[in-house]
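Re: [ENG-882] Designed sequences occasionally contain unexpected residues at chain ends

Forwarding the minimal case from QA. Structure tokens:
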């Protein structure tokens, strides 16, 4: 029995550190109150072990027995108070006022003192002392844990998550186990024939460990939900802000075009051209942000796609891009080149890769080209895009899919294109690999699942 008490006190200290850690990380007052309650539980159980081991058979008015009983009862009452305080803080989000807090602690000390006096008086027999030391503790703890579990369950019954359920179930079951121990004490006092439970303490240890696990899962689930909510709000803000910025940018570009038509001075035309170039770059950044937001929030809609038609659409979108007309497209068209995928996401992937190939090509060489291969292999669709452009340095290949990363200081891109490609492929359960050599060219290999 003493070993069980020691194990419970050690686990109580462990729960104190777990609850305190999460109270600091997530700034939750109720978790700190619960952390203190477990520390007091550990102290209470330690004193109970001391009473059981050292004071068994000693007179009730024996001085160490009095101090141990007073400490045990005080820590038990304080544990219950802090447990219920944490429940109150969880429900209301408000800390108890300091005066009320101090008043409750004073009342607890008075109750513990009165209980200790009753325990030590000559008028109290051994059964009554047994009830004061063990039975009363079990009763108070049982009621407090059941109340705590039910109250939290009422508060969060509409919320999903496993952590809440584990914690609530553990609190209630722990309270029920203490109620059972209280019944055993009563049965012993009234001299009913009842065997002392062989699982004494083991159930408590398992339920305490379950409370700690439930709290950890609960906090992780809660943090994930908060992050998801923040991400949704950020995506919405980026989309709406970027969309609103496009209208004034279009107006500025229109005014710059009118200014070019009206101006004849060479220096003025040069300045207008520089301004137009900067505004177009800003428009590219906003367009990429919009595309990123759309791809992240898009609902994947699978449908049969003609890859020939997709290539035609991508080429049409880029036909006015600088130097696009000078690059030869190599692609074997075939009615069999079909894939079941999301047309918007797949077009985003192929479009961004084509755009990069055009933007970073070597136009001055003899035969600039972009070669596209489409094949089905082992229930997967393999799409290869090869060019003989500038290529990518070996040290940059592993980072080209990072957000805002630009492989070259001469790049005038936003650093979002390939990141958008990676995000879109993640939604399509696909992957992408790259092989590149400077001044030789780059090959992107896309692998997508073939859905029949």
């Amino acid at each position: 029995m003493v070993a069980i008490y020691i194990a419970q006190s050690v686990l109580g200290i462990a729960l104190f550190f777990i609850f305190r850690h999460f109270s600091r990380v997530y700034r939750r007052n109720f978790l700190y109150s619960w952390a203190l309650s477990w520390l007091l539980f550990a102290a209470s159980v330690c004193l109970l072990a001391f009473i059981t081991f050292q004071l068994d058979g000693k007179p009730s008015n024996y001085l160490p027995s009095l101090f141990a009983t007073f400490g045990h009862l005080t820590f038990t009452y304080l544990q219950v108070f802090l447990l219920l305080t944490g429940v109150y803080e969880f429900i209301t989000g408000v800390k108890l006022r300091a005066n009320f807090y101090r008043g409750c602690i004073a009342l607890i000390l008075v109750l513990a003192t009165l209980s200790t006096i009753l325990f030590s008086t000559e008028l109290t027999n051994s059964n009554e002392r047994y009830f004061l030391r063990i039975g009363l503790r079990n009763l108070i703890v049982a009621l407090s844990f059941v109340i705590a579990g039910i109250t939290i369950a009422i508060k969060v019954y509409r919320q999903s998550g496993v952590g809440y359920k584990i914690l609530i179930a553990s609190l209630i079951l722990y309270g029920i186990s203490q109620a059972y121990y209280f019944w055993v004490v009563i049965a012993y006092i009234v001299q009913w024939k009842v065997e002392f439970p062989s699982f004494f303490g083991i159930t408590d240890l398992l339920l305490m460990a379950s409370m700690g696990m439930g709290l950890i899962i609960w906090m992780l689930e809660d943090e994930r939900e908060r992050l998801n909510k923040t991400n949704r709000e950020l995506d919405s803000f980026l989309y709406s802000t970027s969309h609103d910025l496009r209208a004034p940018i279009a107006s500025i570009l229109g005014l710059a075009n009118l200014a070019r038509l009206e101006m004849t001075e060479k220096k003025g035309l040069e300045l207008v051209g520089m301004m137009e170039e900067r505004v177009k770059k800003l428009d590219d950044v906003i367009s990429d942000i919009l595309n990123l937001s759309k791809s992240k929030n898009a609902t994947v809609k699978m449908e049969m796609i003609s890859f020939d038609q997709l290539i035609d659409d991508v080429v049409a979108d880029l036909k006015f891009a600088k130097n696009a007309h000078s690059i030869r497209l190599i692609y074997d068209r075939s009615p069999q080149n079909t894939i079941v995928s999301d047309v918007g996401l797949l077009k985003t992937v192929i479009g961004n890769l084509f755009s990069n190939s055009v933007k970073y090509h070597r136009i001055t060489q003899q035969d600039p080209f972009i070669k596209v291969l489409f094949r089905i292999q082992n229930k997967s669709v393999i799409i290869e895009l090869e060019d003989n452009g500038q290529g990518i340095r070996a040290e940059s290949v592993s980072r080209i899919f990072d957000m805002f990363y630009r492989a070259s200081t001469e790049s005038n891109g936003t650093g979002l294109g390939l990141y958008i490609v990676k995000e879109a492929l993640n939604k399509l359960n696909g992957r992408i690999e790259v092989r590149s050599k400077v001044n030789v060219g780059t090959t992107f290999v896309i692998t997508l699942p073939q859905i029949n």
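QA comment: On inspection the terminal residues look reasonable. The mean pLDDT is 83. Proposing we downgrade this to a documentation issue.
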